[in-house]
Design goal:
Elements lengths: L18 H16 L6 H12 L11 H26 L23 H11 L4
Helix pairs in contact: 1-3
């Protein structure tokens, strides 16, 4: 039987709170057990597909606690990479660099129809 140390699962982290060491510990854990490096969302996707297909023979040698730790490690990496991906995709760009979407305030300097009609009547010499 293979013996491993627990890997903590962390939610709501930021780069300032040690996320790099969090990711590294999860990556090292998976690499030690399965001999694969998980550095991207695609790596995790392939790893989980291969794991689900039963192609890692070491899985059968591990007890349920280690199974849970491996799943938690993969999930933690997935969450960290997704958060990083979302943060990168949410960075704002100037409107000139984003031709697909541009903010326009249709209510800026709006004139009410009642006011416009009243001014037109005044201009025509009405009351």
């Amino acid at each position: 039987m293979i013996s491993v140390e627990p890997v903590q699962h962390v939610y709501g982290f930021s780069h300032d709170s040690g996320v790099e060491s969090f990711i590294k510990s999860k990556q090292d854990f998976i690499e030690t057990l399965f001999g694969v490096s998980l550095k991207t969302l695609e790596d995790i996707d392939v790893f989980t597909q291969v794991l689900d297909a039963g192609n890692y023979t070491v899985w059968a040698e591990l007890d349920s606690d280690v199974h849970n730790m491996a799943k938690d490690a993969a999930l933690g990496l997935w969450e960290a990479f997704m958060a990083e991906h979302k943060a990168k995709s949410n960075t704002s760009k100037p409107a000139s660099e984003s031709p697909i979407f541009q903010y326009v305030d249709i209510n800026a300097n709006a004139t009410s129809y009642a006011g416009a009609t009243e001014c037109q009547i005044c201009a025509e010499g009405g009351s």
